[in-house]
Each structure stands twice: as structure tokens, then as C-alpha cells.
Amino acid sequence: MRMSKYYAPTLKEVPNDTEIKSHELLIRGGFIRKTASGVYTYLPLGTKVLKKIENIVREEMENIGSQEILMPIIQPAEIWQKSGRWDDYGPEMMKLKDRHDRDFTLGPTHEEMITTIIKNELRSYKQLPISLFQIANKYRDEIRPRFGVLRAREFIMKDAYSFHDSEESLNETYEKFYKAYENILERLGVDYLVVEADTGAIGGSNSHEFQIKAEYGESTIYYCDCGYAATDERAESNVVFDTTNEKENNINKVDTPNVKTIDDVATFLKTDKNKIVKSLLFKSREGWVLALIRGDYELNIAKLKTFLSDQTLTLGEPDEIYKTFGVEIGFIGPVGIKNVKIIADHSIKNMKNFVVGGMEKDKHYINVNLNRDFKIDYFADIRMVSKGEPCPKCGDPLKEIKGIEVGQVFKLGTKYSEKLNAYYTAENGKTKPFIMGCYGWGVSRTLGAIVEQLHDDYGMIWPRNIAPFEIVIIPVSTKQKELVDKAEEIYNLLKDKYDVLYDDRDASPGFKFKDADLIGIPLKVVLGKKMKNGKVEIKLRYEKNSQEVDISKSYDDLLKKIEQKLNEYDPKIYFNSIDKD
Questions:
Q1: Domain assignments of the chain as residue spans, ordered by start
Q2: Which pLDDT score is estimated for 201?
């Protein structure tokens, strides 16, 4: 491909609305253009990388026997209403009506659709197991689209679904997808972690996420050298909460004028935050829920949703709370509150003589005690873990790292088959619901995540097998016939074996070099002033110094050096060596 004919509009300046490096570089490098908030057009460079990522994902799916299909993006509301997720997905689901006033959604995922498709087609245990996948656009109306293609409203995803007649069969397929996802990441040439994950609105019993490590990743991961790793939504620890031999003091309501936050309460009452209980009101399908947690900890809403099996759970709005309970949110507490389910974190189980909201403006209770002053409906782990807490497996301090989720696998069980009446005939002649698994891979997210991990001050550093081009040929001047002729010869020599870009633009050498670095092409072949001695220069994207190669007699040495350099090229090893230094 000749650069003069290629649509790759690079930018010198940093766009104003970019938040992280991957977003900035993909726009500056001419890979994407913003159409609307969270919606992007992929230009030729971006499309080339996407297709290469897709091909790796597709090959690994086919290697484990998964079969490709393509389902409609528009899905009828009825199947989502039957599964119960029409409400579960909440405002993230893009909903629309047709001219007959029938409800539809632009599919955020396809569990309901695939279950509906197969339920009248797969009838016997003899047809199982089977897995099907597609690579298609998905839609989620993110409340705050950000980070470019990492948190978009329209995105490209590979989603796969498997159907089984036993848990053992599901486990075998789950392991196949797990290994296939590891293979994808190995082939992409990135550092990654596999972590235990929350199942969220998808549901099911078990889930793992595949996270690409990144300094500014949107996920927080807690891990240990023993092998334990989990996202902050799922992470646990073996922290031991203090016990006390304090005597229970008499409860007392005290004045706390304009004191609403935990920090303010602690300062005003001259007490520690670990002697205060935070009270947070949520709206659930079944009414109000009051979540309690020790004042020095943070509530994990994902854990609370999972415990309640309610993905519609939302934090109560101040106006609605005041209208219902007659109290401002800063003074809500468990003593005397009516018509709520109270869920308490284990951190408050051993507390005595603690502080809670007084259910009255500018009032707090002190010397509050469990069971005497109020009752708990359920205790649960609804707490965010912190770095340094003991690992739940070995007890060593947990470490913290940032990551970007690119894949997730789920054991769904019979959640969808039972609700959508998808049954097969078992070997004993009885009908049973399919046991299911689902497996997602964010293709467009992968593009952004790789850039977020593999870049420097000059631009992207793509792994060879997904780089838009493997080699760029740069004559420093298009006015010198000898340089142009040699560049043409080298281009024609290489283009049948490699993905080659020939920068034939009438532009300065510096401009061409900067574009090549920005775009992230693995290898440069430069024809400059040393051509008078019959030599060209070759240099890997991350190398400081170039290597001279004599082409005065033949191109044999050049071909050998190019192949050698490309085989040596490994951005992951390069970045790891920088970290060690």
C-alpha cells in the first residue's frame, strides 16, 4: 500500500476530549473518528487491526469446535421479559419501538436470542454438547461513555454460547474456552491476568475475566503470588475484624448540626471512623434495602446486587428518601427505621457502642448496639477489599494492579433455559432444561487495551501479528530518483511476503518518521544519505539505533536482516525490560 493513496489522516495535536493515551493515539494515528458520544467510525488503519484481532479470535473459536453464526442486532422485548432481564439491564439497554408500537432492544448480548433459536432445534441429548459464536456489533447506553473504544455505546464483540446435558460437560467446555482465551492473549503478545469476576446482569454461578494489564485500566484487580486474582467487584480477603470486651452503654441521641459525612461525624464526635456505621438506602425490586458497613470501609454495590440477586438495585435518590422516610440522607440509620430489609457487612458484627444516623435532621445516635437497638435481617460480605489485606487462599498481603477487561466466561446453568422453556430429551426419556455457558470477547475493546499497554511517548507499538503494517519503507526524499527507484524495488520485493506500507509522500523525513512511530509499524526501512554507499537503514519501532544493510550487490542480506529483525520483535519483552530497569 502506498501512503499517498491511503486514507490515514494523522494529527499532530492532541484532541481536546481524549482522556487516556489509547484514546488519544487512536485518534491522532488515524485509526478512529468520533461520530457521537461513545460511537466511533473505524478508518482503514483501525479496520485492519480489528480484522486481524477478529481473525485470531475466530481461529481460536474454530480450534475448539465452536461454530460461527450471525444473529440479528434487533431483538424483541418478549424474550427479554421472559428471562426477567428487560428490567434487570436497566437504562443501559437501548430500547426502541417499531411502527406497530412493539418493543425491541438493540442487543447488548444474545443469551435470550440464542436460547430461543435452539430450543426448537436441539431436542436430544445426542446433539449435545454444542457451542455457537458470532462476531457482531453490540449496544449499551453507557451513562458515561469514556476512554474511547474501551467504554463505548456501540462496540464489536465475539459472543459464544454452549449447551450441555450435564455439569461435567459444561465444565469441560468452560475449560476449553478458558484455554482458548489464554491462547488469544498469548498470540496478541500482551501481559494479562485471569481473575475471578462478578457475574453481573448475565448471571450464573462462576465467571472469570481476562484482563490486559494497563497503568490506567478501568478495572482494579487484587491478586497474590499464590495464584489468587479477582476484580474489586468480586475480591475477598481473610481480614479479621477486631472483637471487644466493652460493656454496652446506654444509647443516646445527640445533636450533630450539619454533620452528614463519615469524616464530619468522626471529627465532630471526636471518634474514629471504625466506630461509625454507614447506612446506605437502596431501591430494589421488592422495596427498600438498608446496607450497613463500618465507617472506614467502602460498600461494594456489585456484591450487594449479587447477594440480593437483583441487578436493578440502585442507590436511593435524596428527594425520594426524604419523601418516604422524612429524613435527609446524611442522618439515615437503622434504629427505628421501618419497612426496610437490613443487610449488614460482617465488619459490624463485633462492633459495640457505635454511631449511626439518628433518623432525624442534625441528630446521630451514639452507643448503639446490635440486637438490643435494632435487628439485622442478613449478614453478608458487601465490602470492598483493600491492598495489603490477607489473601483468602494463602494469607499473604494482596497486591493491586489496574487492568482492562477484554474477555469473560460464565457458567450460566439453567437460568435462561428454564425461563425460556428450552428443553431437550435426556437419555432416560425425560425432558430437562439445557445447561448453558456463555463466553464474551470484546474485539474493539482489545484494540484500545493493547494500545493502552503498548505505547511510548511517540505513539503505538503494535505486536507484529495485529499491526496494520509490518514494515514501512521510507525514502527521505521523493526528488532523488535513485532513492525512489530503490524504494520501489524494495517495496515490490517485500509486498508479496509482508504487509508493507510504502511512504511515497512528498513530505519531510521527520514528518514521515513521526507518522511511522505514531502508527506503530514494527520495522522501518529507510533510504537516505547512506544510499550513496549502497546502504539502507533498518530499525525496529522501539530501538534507538538503526542497523545499516548493504544492498549494492543484492537484496539477499536485506531480506535476511528483515526476517531476523521481525522474528526478534516483541513489544512485551521490550516493555518488561524497561520496567526492570
A1: 31-190+198-214+407-453, 252-380, 463-580
A2: 53
Contacts 24+ apart (CB under 8 A), 531-535: 531/482, 531/483, 531/486
Question: Are the beta carbons of 148 and 22 closer than 8 angstroms?
Answer: yes
Q: Are 547 and 540 in contact (CB under 8 A)?
A: no
Inter-residue contact 281 to 290 (CB < 8 Å)? yes
Residue 16: the pLDDT is 86
Q: To which H or E segment does residue 138 belong?
A: strand 130-139
Class of domain 252-380: alpha beta
Listed as ranges, residues in the chain with pLDDT below 50 are 202-203, 580-581
Measure Cα distances from 10 to 43, 73, 165 in Å.
11, 32, 53
pLDDT confidence of residue 40: 96
DSSP states along 521-540? -SEEEEE-GGGGGTEEEEEE
- What is the Cα Rg of the chain in Å? 29
Q: Is 537 helix (H, G, I), strand (E, B) or coil?
A: strand
Buried b (16+ CB within 10 A) or exposed e, 75-90: bbbebbebbebbebbe
> 231 and 197 in contact (C-beta within 8 Å)?
yes
The one-character DSSP state at 466 is G
Q: How far is it, in rounded angstroms, from Cα 5 to Cα 7? A: 7
428 DSSP assignment: T
φ, ψ for residue 445, nearest 5 deg: -65, -35
Q: How many residues are there in the chain?
A: 581
**Residues 241, 346: contact at Cβ < 8 Å?**
yes
User: Please, what's the largest Cα pairwise distance for the chain?
Assistant: 98
Axis-axis angle for helices 556-568, 481-494 (nearest 10): 60
Cell of 19: 482522556
Which of 150, 139, 51, 187 lies closest to 446 in space, CA to CA? 150
pLDDT at 97: 95
Residue 581's pLDDT is what?
Answer: 43
Report the relative pairing of strands 500-502 and 471-475 from DSSP bridges: parallel
Q: What is the pLDDT of residue 573?
A: 87
CB 383 within 8 A of CB 183: no
pLDDT digits (tens, 9 = 90+) for 149-207: 998 999 999 999 999 999 999 999 999 999 999 999 999 999 999 998 765 554 455 78
Return the pLDDT at 138: 96
Q: What share of the chain is helix, strand, coil (3-state, %, to 5)?
A: 35, 30, 40
**Is the Cβ–Cβ distance between 76 and 66 less than 8 Å?**
no
Q: What is the CATH class of 31-190+198-214+407-453?
A: alpha beta
Cα 116 vs. chain centroid, distance in angstroms?
Answer: 27
- Of 44, 22, 42, 23, nearest to 32 (Cα)? 42
Question: Cα(289)–Cα(283) distance, rounded to whole angstroms?
Answer: 6
What whole-number distance in Å separates Cα of residue 263 and Cα of residue 282? 22
Query: According to the model, what pLDDT value does residue 580 have?
Result: 47
**Does the structural domain 463-580 have CATH classification 3.40.50.800?**
yes
Return the DSSP state at 516.
H
Query: Are the CB atoms for 138 and 109 separated by under 8 Å?
Result: yes
